[in-house]
Amino acid sequence: MVDENNEHENLDGVLVPEPTGAPMLVALGITFIFAGLVTNAIVTIVGVPLVLFGAVGWWRGVFPEQKEVLVPLQPAAERPPPVEPAPQKVAHLIPGEDGHRARIPMEIHPYSAGLWGGVVGGIAMALVAIGYGLYSEGSIWYPVNLLASVMLPSLDADNTAQLVHFHWTGLIAALFLHSLLSLMVGSVYGVLLPMLPGRPLLWAGFFAPLVWSGAIWLSLSILSPALDQHIRWSWFIGSQIAFGLVAGWVIARAEPIKTMQSWPLVERAGIEATGIARSKEGDS
To answer: In whole angstroms, what is the distance from residue 141 CA to residue 282 CA?
Structure first.
C-alpha cells in the first residue's frame, strides 16, 4: 500500500473514487420495493435483488481496497497562475457610499417629532375647521359638535340648530377624537417621511392628504351617514392639506437620527470592551 501511494504521488494527477453505478442500482431497487406495496408484489420481488446486487457492488468499491482512478491534471502551461496574497489592507464598505447597498431609511426622525407635528398640525386643521363653521353657519361650535356626533348619539347631526350651540359633552368628545387622530397621523408621518424620496412637504402636504381624504370619502357614508351629509369636502380637504403642510414642516425641521446600520458591528452586537469604552469616551 505504501509503494502504491508513493507511485501515485509521483504522477501528475489526482486520485478520485472509481465511477460506479451501484448507488443508482440500490436507489432503483428501493423504489421498486416501495412501489410494489401499492401496485403488485412482483415489483417488490424484482426490487429486492436489485438492492442486494447494488449493495454488494457498492461495498466492493471500498473494501477490501478502495478502488481509485488517477485523473490527470492540465498541462502546466494551461493552468491558471497561482494566487498571490496582497499586502493591502481591507477597505471597509460604508453603507450608502460608492454604490454599497443600504437599507432604507438611512436616517429617521425621532418619535417626538411626529408627535409634535401631530399637535401643531392638529391646531392648523382645527383653525380651518373653525373658519368653515363661521363661514357656513356663523358658529365656531358647528364643526366641533359635528365631529362629536360621531361618538355622541345625543347630538343629532340632522338638527343644525342644535349643532351651532355650545355643549360640554360635545367639546370633550371632539377634543378627544381630534387629539387622538392628530397624534396618530403625526406619528405615521414621522415614520414614513424619511422613507419617501424628494421633498417631504410635497408628500406630507398634498399627496398624503389627498389619499387620506379619498379613503374617508369612500368609507364615511358607512361609518357616519349623518356626518357624510353635512361635510363640505372642499373645506375638509383644505383642513387636511393644512395639517399635512404644518406637520411635515415640523417633522422635516427635526434633527434626524442615523439608523443602526451605520454603527460598527461591535456596537450593534452590544459588545463591551476596554478599547471600545475608551473610543466612546473620546468621541464624547
So the answer is: 58
DSSP 167-190: -HHHHHHHHHHHHHHHHHHHHHHH
Environment class of 250 (CB within 10 Å of its CB; exposed 0-12, middle 13-18, buried 19+): buried
Which residue in this structure is represented by grid cell 509521483? 10
Measured CA to CA, the distance from residue 204 to residue 120 in angstroms comes to 14
Distance CA 113, CA 126 (A): 20
Residue 278: the pLDDT is: 46
- Give the helix/strand (H/E) hosting 163: helix 160-163
How many C-beta atoms surround the C-beta of residue 222 within 10 A? Answer: 8
Residue 193: its pLDDT value, please?
A: 78
Whether the pLDDT of residue 158 is over 70: the answer is no
- Place 284 in a pLDDT band, splitting at 50, 70 and 90: very low
Distance CA 213, CA 248 (A): 17
Assign 257 to helix, strand or coil.
strand
Alpha-carbon distances of 239 from 47, 128, 130, 139, 177, rounded to whole Å: 80, 5, 10, 17, 15
Per-residue model confidence (pLDDT) at position 28: 94
- pLDDT, one tens digit per residue, over 128-143 is 988 888 888 888 888 8
* 41 φ/ψ angles, rounded to the nearest 5 degrees: -65, -25
| 163 Cβ contact list (under 8 Å, min separation 6) | 137, 139, 141, 142, 145, 146, 149, 155, 157
**Quick check: 86 pLDDT over 80?**
no
